[in-house]
Each structure stands twice: as C-alpha cells, then as structure tokens.
Amino acid sequence: MSEYSGDPSEFKVYWFARDLVASSYGSYATKETETLKQLSSQLERSVSDDHTGNDRSLEEQKQLIRESITGSVNRIYRDDISKRYRQTEDLVERILRRVAEQDDIREFRIAIDAVVRTSEILDTTPSFGESEIVEIVDQTLQTENGSLDPSKAYDALFNVDFEGEAYQLGAQREPLIEYVHERMNELERESHIGAQEVARILSGIVQEYERRAGQSRASTAGNVLETGLQHIFNQFDIPATNDQAHFGDLEVDNKVAGPEGAIGFSCKRTLRERFRQSLSREAEIGVDEIWFVSLLMADVSREKVEDISNDGGRIYVPRDSFVWNRYSDIDDLSYTLRPADQFLEDIVEFTAVTADL
C-alpha cells in the first residue's frame, strides 16, 4: 500500500474522476460510458496477466489508455481536426501524467467505476417537477377557509426553492449512500488497502459527485422558480406570457402586459452582479420596467437597490428582513424597494390587468 503525505495531488481517484467528466475535456465519461467500461476490464486483465509491475507493463497499460480513449472519437470534422478529438487528447495527457505506478492504474479503474455509476445515479434521480411545485405553491397560498392569499406569493416562491433543493438533495444522496457503502465493503476486503486509504478514495468519489450534483441542482433552480411564478399568476388569473426569454446575457423569467404598462420579471435566489445586465434594456425586452424578486438578502445591498432605482425598476423583499427595515424609509428608494406581500397587488395596479385578487 502506498504512503500518502496529504498532498492533494495524491488524491488521484478524485482527479481522474474530475477530468473524466469535465466539460473542458468533452465530458468524456458521460458520452463514452461503454468505452470506459471496456477499458477498465482490459486494464484489470492486464494486471492479472502480469504481476511483475515492471515499467514495460505500465507503459503498455498507458498506451492502452491512450488508444482506447482517443480511438473512440472522430478525429476529423469538416476537413479539420475535430474539437472533440482535441479535447480527448488533452484528457489523455491529464490522465497519463498522473500514472506513475500500478497503484495509479488501480485508482484510475476505481475512478472509472465511480463516474459511470454516479452518472447513472444523476441521470435517474427523480426531478423536482411541476406537480411538486404546484402542490407547494397551492399549500402556501391557501388560507384556513380555502381561499387564496395574494400576499403569500413571495412565501410560495421561497418555499418552492427551499423544499425543491431539499427534495433534489435527498433524492441524489440516497443512491449515493448505497453506492459508497457497497464500494467501502469492496475496498475493505482488499487486504493491502488500509482504512485511511479507503477513506481517501471514498472522499474523492463523494467530493466529485457533490460537485456535479450541485451543478445539476443549480441548473434546475431557475426553472423551478419560473414554474412557480407562472403558477402563482395562473392562480390569480394574472395574464402572464409564460415566456422565458434570453436577450444575450440577460434572462427574463416572465412578462405581464396590460393597458397601462408592461413588466419583465427576474426571479432569482440571489441578486448577483449579473442583475445589472438587465438595467437600461427595457426597450429591447419590450417592457416598461423590470422587477426583481430576490429570495435571499445577502446580495441585496443599498448600492444595488440604488442602481435599480436609477433605472426605474423595483425589487421585492420581505417586511421582516433587515434590508426592508434599513432602507424602506429612505425617500429616494421608496418607489424601488417594495414589500414582498404587495407583489401581486402592485402588478395589477401598474399594468391595469384584470385579475382575481
């Protein structure tokens, strides 16, 4: 068994796994699953056939890795070297630079199994779909007498985001726990692998899985809020377009247009710096104002509220937030900074649309 100093470069299972799924190297593992499975089997047989661990055997294994991976993609596209082939060559160089001994081949095979299995987990994990979103929105809006409370619209969006994240996280973790337990038992049965090395290997697998799972959750978070916002509009008969439009680097989640005006909405978990990309672009988008809904207050600074104010837009925050308590009495910001419980009422007043509030 190898001795490890704690140098991150030695956590090769993690680095192999990360490179195999990295988009900069063509997301190879997600596209060439069968090739990787066959390569792992061939590497296993090569170890069984030659127990010497000599340099020649290692070089042959490295050559097998190179030929298997680069040979699985098209080299030429439109009479030139394909981008995918160049990405695959870069991937192979990254892999082979980490292979210095037989233990590295073993860890590469562990990484292959990890990315294949965890990709299957991510692909088959149940998503937080429209039916779940609708149920949460309806439960939040409904009062004790069965009517719908328009002042709870912001709370409904917050609950959709909060419970949606918990749902996805739980759905992604449960099969991972089963896989890690299975892998732990397999590794512990190998007499030459100590407990610390088992922990090192499994931590790398879990770390890379969580990175990918986090990206997956982030990519669906916007769609969850868009769906929630549209269902809120539907419940109160507010005639929204339900169009999610992209204008270059700007994303508008929905629009409401009426006789007196038109609004574009940007509903996000946080008000990151990219919010400024929507300022001064109302004409391009086809609205009079852009209104922001930010679920978390950490990024809602006075400077950002002032920027929105200078552009003539609005941002909605909860009354019980420190942002509201701190800035709501400032005259210059009174039009811009609005209480979340008046979100729907303000839409109807601004646009003069007919709604059931």
Question: Could you explain how this protein is built, in words?
Answer:
By secondary structure, the protein is of the alpha/beta class. It folds into three domains: 1-123, no CATH class; 125-235, no CATH class; 245-351, no CATH class. The chain has helices spanning 12-21, 28-31, 33-49, 55-70, 83-97, 102-124, 130-141, 153-188, 195-235, 282-285, 302-310, 322-327, 343-351, and strands spanning 76-77, 80-81, 245-247, 250-252, 254-257, 262-268, 289-294, 314-317, 337-339. The strands form three sheets. Strands 5-6-7-8-9 form a five-stranded mixed beta sheet, sandwiched between helices. Strands 1-2 form a two-stranded antiparallel sheet. α10 links the parallel β6 and β7. The radius of gyration is 27 Å and the shape is elongated. Residues 43-62 are annotated as: Disordered. This is EcoRII C terminal. Residues 46-62 have a biased composition (Basic and acidic residues). It comes from Natronoarchaeum philippinense.
